[in-house]
C-alpha cells in the first residue's frame, strides 16, 4: 500500500508546465500539469541524453525534451517512435486539489 507524500496543490503547477521535486537520493522528479488539469510525474531526465524534462514544453499528454525535442508520454514515460527509451514514472494521487506522490517511490534510488 502506498504512503502518500503531499507535494503541492494543482494550482501551484503551471498549466502546460511542471514543478521539480528534489529527492534525497537520485535526480529530481518533474510533476507536470496538462491543459485538462491532469497531473503526471516522471524522473526529470530524458532517456536520450538526460535533458531536464521539467524545462520542456507540455502538449496534450506529452512533454518535449528541451535538448533534442524528443517527445515523452506523460502517462507512461515512453519516448514516441522512432525514438526509443523510457523515463521512470511515479505514482500520483490528486485529492481535493492537493497533489501527492508515493513516498516509497520518491525514496528509492
What do you see in this structure?
The protein is mainly beta and 109 residues long. The chain has one domain (4-107): Rieske [2Fe-2S] iron-sulphur domain (Rieske Iron-sulfur Protein), CATH 2.102.10. It has one helix at residues 103-107, and strands at 4-9, 17-21, 29-33, 39-43, 57-59, 62-64, 71-73, 89-90, 92-95, 98-102. The longest helix has 5 residues, at 103-107. It starts with a strand and ends with a helix.
Put the structure in a nutshell.
The protein is 5% helix and 38% strand. The protein has one helix at 103-107, and strands at 4-9, 17-21, 29-33, 39-43, 57-59, 62-64, 71-73, 89-90, 92-95, 98-102. The chain is globular.
Features:
109 residues, mainly beta, Rieske Iron-sulfur Protein, 4-stranded antiparallel β-sheet, 3-stranded antiparallel β-sheet, 10 strands, globular
Amino acid at each position: 500500500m502506498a504512503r502518500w507524500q503531499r507535494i503541492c496543490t494543482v494550482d501551484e503547477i503551471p498549466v502546460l508546465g511542471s514543478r521539480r521535486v528534489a529527492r534525497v537520493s537520485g535526480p529530481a522528479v518533474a510533476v507536470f500539469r496538462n491543459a485538462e488539469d491532469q497531473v503526471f510525474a516522471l524522473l526529470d531526465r530524458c532517456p536520450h541524453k538526460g535533458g531536464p524534462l521539467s524545462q520542456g514544453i507540455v502538449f496534450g499528454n506529452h512533454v518535449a525534451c528541451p535538448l533534442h525535442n524528443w517527445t515523452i508520454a506523460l502517462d507512461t514515460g515512453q519516448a514516441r517512435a522512432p525514438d526509443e527509451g523510457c523515463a521512470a514514472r511515479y505514482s500520483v494521487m490528486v485529492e481535493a486539489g492537493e497533489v501527492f506522490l508515493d513516498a516509497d517511490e520518491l525514496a528509492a534510488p
